[in-house]
Amino acid sequence: MKKQDKIIMRRILITLFAVLFIGWFLFWPLNKYIESPGTADSLRSYVKIKGHPDRQKGSFMITSVYLQQARPITYLWAKMTPYNTIENKQDVTGGQSNATFNKVQDFYMQSAINEAIANAYKAAHQEVSKRYLGIYVLEVEKNSKFKNDIKVGDTITKVNGHHFDTAQGFQKYIAKRKIGTPLTVTYLHDGHQHTVTKPLVKIASSRAGIGIVLTDNVKVHTKIPIKVNPGQLGGPSGGLMFTLQIYQQLTGHDLRHGRKIAGTGTINPDGSIGEIGGIDKKVIAAHKAGAKIFFAPYVKPSKLLLKYEEQHMTNYQMAKKTAEKAAPGMKVIPVSSFTDAVKYLETHP
């Protein structure tokens, strides 16, 4: 091969290597996820209640965390940018496919909306009722004999022809049976009813079970029609802010007084507020959107609790620390219940 041909070949190989490296650097998906500050969006356009429009100034804002699968370039960017964290894919998705993970997050959001409606209507002395549909399947264990039939997103409505009004009712009934005993399960998949009979397996508590991770599937009915559209948002952490938005629209009480009020936290049937992940990122998102008040879930810190908390700080501790450093002028308010949030707004106009 002539010297000139060798030079040309070398240049071709170098160019090819450079193109492949750039492609890998920009597009190759890593087994990591990046969590970064998302957005803080006004809930005014999310909630529609017949005869109760939101005409008050200011806004209640739902905060989010932006989640993306890492590429080499975004991994490097995340390492260099404050308030970004890198998590293992397994820790984020639990080994689920993206489609399954998104389906579960959508269900968590809808459950949060249902509880928000129930809490707000009850607080506003408006008619509301719940109907228990059954067990929503969050995960099917590998050892489950039902794994080829029941899928994530299905709702179990009966076992051996019996329907119960709580998950505990289903669990107690099944726990009385022996491992290996056949169980007939009726379930809904994509709106269609199916029935399957399989033997029970040994679960973590050394008793008989179907072999699933579950939560309640509840339908809420109201006399005053309401529609809540969360758009692309998922997860349970918007419960508190949806409750505040719905409550203000129903009652007509001006809790905002023209202010932009952000926050986060799950909402439970008794009105208590639960902790969430990524609250530092949500504080940043709220600050960028101009919020002056941020509601953070409060739990009493203890050595045991802090051992397992994110960065060994409770939600309130982390939110307060983040605001002091990166969100000057924002008040972080600790709340343990929906009532706490309402009382604060009523006494601090």
From TrEMBL:
Tell me the InterPro entries matching this sequence: Lon_proteolytic, Lon_Prtase, PDZ, PDZ_sf, Ribosomal_Su5_D2-typ_SF, Ribsml_uS5_D2-typ_fold_subgr
Indicate the transmembrane segments per the record: 12-30
Please name the catalytic residues of this protein.
S237, K282
Keywords from UniProt, A to Z, are: Hydrolase, Membrane, Protease, Serine protease, Transmembrane, Transmembrane helix
Catalyzes what? Hydrolysis of proteins in presence of ATP
The Enzyme Commission number assigned here is: 3.4.21.53
Among SUPFAM superfamilies, the record links this protein to:
PDZ domain-like (SSF50156), Ribosomal protein S5 domain 2-like (SSF54211)
Entry annotated with the keyword Transmembrane helix: yes
> Which parts of the sequence belong to the Lon proteolytic domain?
234-348
Query: What does the similarity note say?
Result: Belongs to the peptidase S16 family.
State what protein this is by name.
endopeptidase La
Q: Which organism does this sequence originate in? A: Limosilactobacillus fastidiosus
